[in-house]
Amino acid sequence: QSSVPSLTSESNSTMLVPAGDHYTMMEFATAYFRAAQSMQGLKGMSAEKKSAAKLVQHTKAPIQESLLQYSDSDLNELATKNFKTLMRFMGDQSKLKNQNDVECIYEILQLCKEKESLHDEVYCQVIKQVTHNPNQESLLRGWLLLNLLTGYFLPSNILMPYATKFLQLASSDPSSTHHDIAKICQSNLRKNVMYGGRRHLPFPVELEALLKGHSARRLLVTMPGGVEYLTRIKTFAVAKELLQEICEQMGAGEQEEIQEFVLFAIRNKKVRPISSEEYLHDYLLEDKLVTVSLRRLLWRTPLHFENKIYTDVHYGQILWDYLDGRILLNSSKETELQVGILAMLQHWAKPEQQNSDLSREKLKEYTPKTLQSSIRPQVLENHVAMLLRTRQPLQPVDAKIQFIEEVMKLPFFGYNIYFVERVSDDTIPVPCFFGVNKEEIIVVDCTTQEVSCVILLKELQKMRTLQPASEGGLPGIELSYGSAASPKTTWLELSQAKEMYHTLVVILDKTELR
């Protein structure tokens, strides 16, 4: 939406990319500022240029009307009120009684959030107040606000090339005090164009930190296998940047493989995958009750084990999924043999257990909880004892790699498994498991482990989450799939409905990228 109603669509389409010496803010002011209209006809070009230059320079006096022309008097009033708030924040005017810096910033950001038509006006006001500003403290505060504006709100297509040029010129002077923050603003604007800007306004604690000069927040990312990654994330960091940083530390630097990892936000046992293009701060609440974890979601690229952290993370994730019953085993005569081999490898993976006997209690710890009641303890114990007698022990790292390779052979490896309590299809026995991978959704019988239904992701037309049908009931998901000639709809109820829904969204997004 343009904030300059007098412009034609033709001029809008020709002013998108800065070039040469054009697209300066003085040119924009001459063409679109309300005050520029009254200057037309001044004697001599130099007088006109001098007057136009003043329009985009710092002023100590509040403006009496909006910089841009608005036919709506309410917008004009909001614009002049905002300029006063801006001056109070920058220290060019005294604050109101009991008003603080954080409240000033909030007032300006909230106005932009509510009134898209004022985006250009606010951009112009801030740019004006940081241009030829003699007060260093005031100047830095103005740039801090521009840092926030560029990350949250886009200027119109009309103003964009001028704002871009302004930031380009400001960042190209290494001797200036605002050189670095101008570069950050450029980066914010590029991200905003690509990813749409942060959705939620910052919490007071984040703004207070920014005012103190702390531009990055400490974040601890938990990873499988007890690995923790401590980092600092900037105000407008997106998930893909953090994923790249962590994956490179693990020795997984190829883009194809990085795309197979996902960050998850966890709060009160509710898990939500974060899309790679989402802003991390939109998930990090002020109360610090949100934790961020990393998991591998897709398994298309081959694994490689030259990096110890990489090996530990993959072993930790696959081991947890296996023991939690998320990697389902076929219920057959081979089950005890499979569980036995995997128990032995787990035992060897622990350096302190290398030469110790495997007790029945320890064996139970090494067995998936979903199989502990169906596997005969004595048979398993005898089988593992025989394995330990006849096989040469492996070093812990080799045991972990072999464990991973053995589990990857199991029929349901690579599926994200969800326990479903109700399904609309009466032919499906419940409770059951729904598994989701890069290609399909499967329905698995809890008892027989047989697949009773397959929905190809390429046939998934739409889906939506469902509220619980009754108080104390479970949330659900509705899946619409099939062809136009034969459409089908299925709903399912499960406690992890939102997690499954958002996981499907992320998988669909990632598979479309290929």
From TrEMBL:
Limits of the FERM domain: 217-514
InterPro entries reported for this sequence: Band_41_domain (IPR019749), FERM_2 (IPR035963), FERM_central (IPR019748), FERM_domain (IPR000299), MyTH4_dom (IPR000857), MyTH4_dom_sf (IPR038185), Unconventional_Myosin_ATPase (IPR051567)
Protein's cellular compartments: Cytoplasm
Keywords of this entry: Actin-binding, Cytoplasm, Repeat
Matching CDD domains: FERM_B-lobe
Pfam families, alphabetized: FERM_M (PF00373), MyTH4 (PF00784)
GO CC entries: cytoplasm; cytoskeleton
Molecular function GO terms recorded: actin binding
Location of the MyTH4 domain: 58-211
Source organism, top-level taxon: Eukaryota
Family (UniProt): Belongs to the TRAFAC class myosin-kinesin ATPase superfamily. Myosin family.
Name of the featured protein: Unconventional myosin-XV
